[in-house]
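Field log, afternoon session.

UNIT: design team B
ACTIVITY: writing a sequence onto a fixed backbone
BACKBONE:
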């Protein structure tokens, strides 16, 4: 019984550690999280888009990257994003092209100049005509050729496709790990193996807290180095660097990822502490049983 309980506990520790590690991801992947963080961190000063339009594009980009595609092809998924892009472009272009040249805001005049340049590149005069086309992906492609600050180019889409495959490839394993951890806990509970159950529920969160403390310290000291190493592991093909004024980076600047990292760390830490407290409770039951 002791050997069996030890094996069940070890399997439970591994599975539970994986679940706790990914707990923060689910908080970060919520559409509301992207909306809030984008609204407060997006670099709209370097983008031709207004803040609200850039925020809408950030949420649409999140949907393209995170949500399961289902029966949608890559082409169809990109078209869905580009519909949002057309609406954002129409709104921002109409807003800034109507700015008078004597406007005291340099930022508004810079945005007006950016949209004027794009309209010339598209050989259009009215935003409603330029961006109201039925073939949104074709228009978006022309916009990207005029500059990656206006639309996602091929490289940006390919990186987001890589992210989508990675995320939706891992998520099912999280569910499997959760079931394994639950089954292990129930087995130990039914067998009244309080000590081994307490160890399972204590060791897994301690491992995660230690790992996240190390990663958090690294990110605090050298966030760019941590960010680079993270992408180097998950995206060894190296297609994740873009210009500072690109649409992708303006939607998701460094401050956005720092906020996401903090949320992930905080969520996993809270979940780990809760599990650790429960584990200590079962360890206490084992102590009392042994005392008698």
């Amino acid at each position: 019984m002791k050997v069996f309980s030890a094996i069940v506990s070890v399997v439970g520790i591994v599975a539970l550690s994986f679940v706790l590690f990914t707990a923060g991801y689910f908080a970060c992947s919520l559409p509301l999280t992207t909306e809030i963080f984008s609204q407060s961190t997006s670099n709209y000063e370097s983008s031709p888009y207004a803040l609200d339009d850039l925020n809408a594009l950030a949420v649409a980009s999140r949907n393209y990257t995170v949500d399961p595609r289902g029966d949608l092809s890559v082409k169809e998924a990109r078209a869905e994003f580009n519909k949002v892009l057309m609406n954002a472009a129409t709104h921002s272009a109409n807003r800034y092209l109507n700015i008078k040249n004597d406007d005291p805001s340099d930022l508004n005049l810079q945005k007006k100049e950016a949209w004027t340049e794009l309209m010339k590149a598209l050989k259009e005069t009215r935003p409603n005509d330029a961006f109201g086309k039925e073939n949104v992906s074709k228009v978006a492609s022309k916009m990207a050729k005029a500059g990656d600050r206006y639309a996602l180019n091929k490289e940006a889409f390919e990186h987001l496709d890589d992210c989508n495959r990675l995320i939706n490839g891992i998520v099912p394993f999280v569910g499997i790990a959760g079931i394994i951890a639950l089954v292990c806990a129930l087995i130990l509970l039914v067998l009244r193996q309080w000590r081994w159950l307490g160890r399972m529920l204590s060791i897994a969160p301690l491992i995660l807290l230690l790992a996240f403390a190390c990663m958090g310290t690294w990110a605090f000291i050298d966030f760019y180095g941590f960010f680079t190493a993270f992408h180097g592991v998950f995206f060894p093909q190296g297609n994740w660097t873009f210009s500072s004024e690109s649409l992708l980076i303006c939607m998701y600047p460094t401050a956005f990822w720092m906020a996401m990292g903090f949320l992930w760390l905080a969520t996993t830490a809270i979940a780990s502490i809760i599990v650790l407290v429960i584990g200590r409770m079962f360890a206490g039951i084992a102590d009392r049983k042994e005392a008698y």
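LOG NOTE: The mean pLDDT is 89.
NEXT ACTIVITY: expression trials, pending approval
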